[in-house]
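Thread: sanity check for a docking pose with nicotinamide-adenine-dinucleotide

Original post by kr_44:
Hi all, I'm comparing my docking run against an independent structure prediction. Below are the sequence and the ligand SMILES. Could someone generate the full complex and paste the structure tokens? I mainly care about where the ligand ends up relative to the chain.
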Amino acid sequence: MHISIIGTGYVGLVTGACFSEFGVFVTCIDKDKNKIESLKNGVIPFYEPGLDDLVKRNFKQGRLKFSTDIGEAVEESLVIFIAVGTPPRGDGSADLSYVDNVAKEIANHIKSYKVIVTKSTVPVGTGERIRKTISQHLKEEVNFDIVSNPEFLREGAAIEDFMRPNRVVIGTRSQQAAAIMKDLYRPLYLIETPFVITNIETAELIKYASNSFLATKISFINEMANLCEKVGADVNVVAKGMGLDRRIGPKFLHAGPGFGGSCFPKDTKALLKIASEHNVELGIVNAAIKANENQIAWTTEKIKNAFKAQKGSRAEEQKNLTGITIAILGLSFKPNTDDIRESPAISIIQGLLNADANIRAYDPVAMDNTKAVLPDITYCNDAYDACNGADAVVIITEWNQFRNLEMERIKQLLKQPYFFDLRNIYEPQKMQALGFKYYSVGRSAL
Ligand SMILES: NC(=O)c1ccc[n+]([C@@H]2O[C@H](COP(=O)([O-])OP(=O)(O)OC[C@H]3O[C@@H](n4cnc5c(N)ncnc54)[C@H](O)[C@@H]3O)[C@@H](O)[C@H]2O)c1
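Reply from moderator J.T.:
Ran it for you. Here is the predicted complex with nicotinamide-adenine-dinucleotide included:
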């Protein structure tokens, strides 16, 4: 089978590379000429563990092609995936202009039966919208089917998630399209992946409901963490105690600085917008968003407050971190990715800069992306370089290399021993015994 993927970003490239690994012939299309040229030269545009090898191998073996020519790709493919971005608009709704453009371009080139699949996360009703757009722009009378096949991969573990997903969701009205999709995903049938075959609207909603539920779990434990700090409880143990209940489960119960990334913030807001358009109130999703905004703001305040005592009467001033240098460890929204979209690190740094702090930052792979939005902070060679001469260190992203830092060395490098561990990696008692003014999330009243 030959397929094409339109939009060669995180989702499109991973999808294309993984299907080609399954033996399918794949053309990955993007309108960004530089990206396509780089890919042809073996340069992967973002960091994702294992993707480099997969792309290079399948490209070399001729199963994976890169092109900007959507016409040729549509002509030779039976299945066409749409994997372009659906970024948030000012009112929180998903911007469907990229999807609309692709639908029109596909319509211009269809000459035989095609299955057109949305992998992008799109509001309920978009499948129908694509059907109408294509029908209106078709050059000749041709049959086509629309499928919703939302993607659930996690950046940083995207290949494993694609190759061994918890489930595959296929939404379509057409039995023929469902059969073609099952055929395409046959390697996953063989490993007994559950398939949810349903209508388009249900498939579209499953994606938003899943992400909003996970975001809610994170906001829930973050609020519990704030309470833990006040009542002397330990949120890690609370989460463990909760997670052992199989009805709750242990995942997504890690307290921290708040969720970020390219999906949770935008998908929760888009779901609220979809619901409000149908006069349905989603109070829980609304609260999860609000709790997350509070968490990020509160984390910044926590750092600022720690220096209040030193700053005396100037503590209430907005710029109360004048003369204070803060080392930031981790910039990406989570480990194993260079994606900084909606990363809590960016908001926290901006809050600290507003308070006049100097920032020395380090991230194993996300510094180039961060330079584009925060050009004026100091970028460092490693965690120790970042701590050199700083008044405080803040771990924001739990990269493995931050899990076993040489604390004696860190302490010597810091001007003052303030340590903010926003991922609860270290033991409070041990850190205090080492002489750090140690702050974590939901584990102490410090
Ligand atoms: N990133 C994730 O972890 C993830 C996970 C699941 C679902 N999703 C969803 O998948 C979709 C894509 O996300 P992403 O992170 O891969 O986005 P991305 O921004 O990394 O990639 C989108 C790509 O589409 C290209 N594009 C835009 N218009 C085009 C056109 N007319 N023709 C050809 N190419 C075009 C862009 O140049 C870009 O390379 C979004 O709807 C997102 O919500 C993302």
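The chain is about 45% helix and 15% strand. Hope that helps with the comparison, let us know if your pose agrees.
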